[in-house]
Predict the structure.
Amino acid sequence: MPISITEDIRSITDLKRNTNSVLDQIHKTKRPVILTVNGKAEAVLVDAKEYEKITNAFNLLKLLVSAEEDFKEGRYTEVKDFFQEFKHGKEI
């Protein structure tokens, strides 16, 4: 989701005056809008569905990082061993 510096950086004053226009832009382009105060970035507005996607991806990434650490530390079981233990434990 590349940002367009000519369209996606808006002042807080512009948001106050043109709220519907800014929201329409966010929904249409699916890009975030960076809000500035006195020329400096202050906040980012993101479409709610896009925010959910980003949050879900971030949560998955956190799980993968944890799994990678487990693997590096040798805290894993080979799949064939896992299934053998599972079958034995469930008497399958």
Q: What stands out?
A: The helical segments are 12-17, 19-29, 48-72, 79-90. The mean pLDDT is 93. The first strand starts at residue 9 and ends at 11.
